[in-house]
Amino acid sequence: MPRIITIANQKGGVGKTTTAVNLAASLAAAERRTLLIDVDPQGNAGSALGIARDEVEASVYEALLDGVPLADVVRKTELKFLDLAPASRHLVGAELELADVSGRERRLADAVAAIASEYEYVLIDCPPSLGLLTLNGLVAAQGVIIPLQCEYFALEGLADVLRTIDLVKEQANPGLLVDGIVLTMHAANNLAQQVEDEIRKHFRREVFKTVIPRNVRLSESPSHGKPILLYDVASKGCQSYLELAREVVKRADRLGKAA
């Protein structure tokens, strides 16, 4: 059974796409067949893998609105075990177009269901909002990974995400779980450590042990169209995501046995 995981946080600039891209690449490096689905109209997950949003012909938009099979949208990447279902500029208006569509919150779930068995992991990168595209990501998933920046207002943003997940569980996807909270952009200072301690105190089981540091090489890699794994494998950022992937696999294996 594949594990379908949505990477979500309604707050921008928390390392959401960075986590989606580099976690997917790290899973692929471990020879886990992985599909990354980009439902963010900005298309940054694709550009971080060398596939520019404006050069895409068939995209997630066509899968959501026109019923094009997701298999026809998928592109290969530089990594043998990593495929991408890219976004396109047309996704900008998708939420308005989906508003009047029957079963609008299940469009992505239906598209993913037809292709999921070909992969061990399906990761969905959502926009930094709690609109219809993110709702589609949450309804399609079995689990959610929440990237959380180590800053003062982190807990407030986390509360909003958790409320949304609870609503989705009640109304559309009762099996949805929080697979984990990953602390990102961790600076080596007292404030970041205090925030980490506070979050771990409140969410001891959910928070991954791995912490993603602030890392220049990690910030540079998207501009070269490469995940950090192919840009600087020795960097702290890369090693952190490889370690996070190991944790994700262990948790997914546990959840699979418990199911």
Automatic annotation (TrEMBL):
<feature type="domain" description="AAA">
    <location>
        <begin position="3"/>
        <end position="176"/>
    </location>
</feature>
<dbReference type="InterPro" id="IPR027417">
    <property type="entry name" value="P-loop_NTPase"/>
</dbReference>
<dbReference type="Pfam" id="PF13614">
    <property type="entry name" value="AAA_31"/>
</dbReference>
<dbReference type="InterPro" id="IPR050678">
    <property type="entry name" value="DNA_Partitioning_ATPase"/>
</dbReference>
<protein>
    <submittedName>
        <fullName>Chromosome partitioning protein ParA</fullName>
    </submittedName>
</protein>
<dbReference type="InterPro" id="IPR025669">
    <property type="entry name" value="AAA_dom"/>
</dbReference>
